[in-house]
Design a protein that fits this description.
Length: about 180
């Protein structure tokens, strides 16, 4: 379990829209640190094997997008999706999925994923190094709750999904909210 540990401190290389840039690609590089994402916030983070993949695109990302308002009503400041993909891919995927509320975090080099201990080989699928599916609640940079699909291993033949679903994370947050209300 990773509960109680500080999230890794890295710099994520992102691309952000910049209206001052003319042309068909009005984006610029913007490095964003772990501190920018996690300090003085309580957030939900979910990670998945890759952009445009079936389970991620059909269930996990749309599910978190659809439950965003409910999740953030439970003392959550933001919901982040992190994947071992570059910023170009994450931005295009968000656009194709019509993602407006969730913030996409590109972990292009897999550094955050490696440091948190979730980087696995997916060579059997031609994916290279990717993230095992997990989710977490992070409070001021410290992991409050951890969700991980079973069977984490290199070159897995399956891609389990359930424990890291938005419904599972929401159930935890609702339980916490009841506890706070009763205290």
């Amino acid at each position: 379990m990773k509960i109680g540990i500080q999230v890794p401190s890295i710099v994520f290389q992102t691309r952000v829209r910049d209206e001052s840039i003319e042309g068909s690609n009005p984006y610029r590089w913007k490095p964003i640190t772990s501190s920018d994402y996690f300090v003085n916030k309580r957030v939900v983070v979910f990670s998945l094997p890759g952009a445009f993949t079936p389970t991620c695109s059909t269930y996990q990302v749309p599910g978190f997008e659809n439950l965003y308002d409910t999740i953030t009503s439970l003392r959550i400041d933001e919901v982040y999706c992190i994947s071992v993909n570059d910023s170009f891919t994450m931005n295009k995927w968000a656009k194709d999925q019509n993602i407006i509320k969730i913030k996409m975090i590109p972990d292009g080099n897999g550094e955050f994923t490696r440091q948190i201990g979730m980087l696995v080989e997916k060579f059997n699928l031609g994916f290279g190094m990717r993230s095992w599916r997990y989710a977490m609640v992070v409070n001021n940079g410290v992991i409050e709750q951890w969700f991980e699909e079973p069977g984490r291993r290199d070159n897995a033949d399956d891609d389990p999904y359930g424990i890291t679903s938005p419904e599972s994370v929401l159930a935890y947050l609702e339980m916490c909210d009841i506890s706070v209300a009763n205290s």
